[in-house]
Amino acid sequence: MSELKYKILDLMKEDARRGPELIATMLGVTKEEVEQAIAEMERDHVIVKYAPIVNWSKVDDQRVTALIEVQITPERGRGFEGIAERIYLYPEVKTVYLMSGAYDLLVEVEGKSLKEVANFVSHTLSPIDSVLSTKTFFILKKYKQDGFIFEDNEGDHRLKISP
């Protein structure tokens, strides 16, 4: 991938509302070059979706998010791919990562209540043949997501370092 595309991605990741004209000005290239690069990245599924970062605590919405560590037995011939696909196709599942370490998959699930998420884990996820164990962590509060800090704290509250 070209250096221009990397720079465009960095600028769009920071703020996807920036238009091709502004990006072109910021990078010192033509608007047409930026439009062409973006179109190519969309076609090649480098850019998959444009979505806002939402601070759900500011909205009257009682969503519950959980991170679930899942240990699985890889399938012969497909490894982790088949089981990951089976899990990510459920509408409650927002994200699935293959991980190194003590567990194999990290699954992010969203529901309307703790009970709904717990039912998903106990009645849908855990009974899958390849699933050996699960460990569920409910997110109580988000402080920062994708580089964006949700709190409106004024001033610098970092601890001072003394020599």
From TrEMBL:
SUPFAM superfamilies: Dimeric alpha+beta barrel, Winged helix' DNA-binding domain. This is AsnC family transcriptional regulator. Pfam families: AsnC_trans_reg. Residues 70-141 form the Transcription regulator AsnC/Lrp ligand binding domain. Gene3D superfamilies: 3.30.70.920, Winged helix-like DNA-binding domain superfamily/Winged helix DNA-binding domain.
